């Protein structure tokens, strides 16, 4: 990766199809990695529209990538999610029983 290039980070969330998972996922998928750590000198009073335009101009690699599970296997993958993973309850139950 070149110096100064925006880095992306993956964030795993459970139940992307629930209210909480969807809300957090949508918010984080539009946030720039490290944006809160950047020094903003004299730009604190920028309008919200200008900030949204700046974020949309940044490369996608600089945004958080959201991955996670769905609470119902038949749910549709949310538009903000990069990947969704299926969880087999039979597999989890079998693993828990053998761990005892």
Describe it:
With 100 residues, this protein is of the alpha/beta class. It has one domain (10-35, 49-99). The chain has three helices and three strands; from the N terminus they run E-H-H-E-E-H. It has helices spanning 19-29, 48-57, 89-99; strands at residues 10-13, 65-69, 81-85. A three-stranded parallel beta sheet has the order 1-2-3, with helices on one face. The longest helix has 11 residues, at 19-29. It is elongated. The model has no long low-confidence stretch (mean pLDDT 75).
Q: Could you tell me the mean pLDDT?
A: 75
| Series of secondary-structure elements, N-terminal to C-terminal | EHHEEH
The number of domains is 1
Based on CA atoms alone, the radius of gyration comes out at 18 Å
Structural class: alpha/beta
Distance between the termini: 45 Å
Low-confidence stretches: none
Major sheet: 3 strands, parallel
- The portion of residues assigned to helices is 25-40%
How many helical stretches?
3
Q: What percent strand?
A: 5-15%
Strand order of the largest sheet: 1-2-3
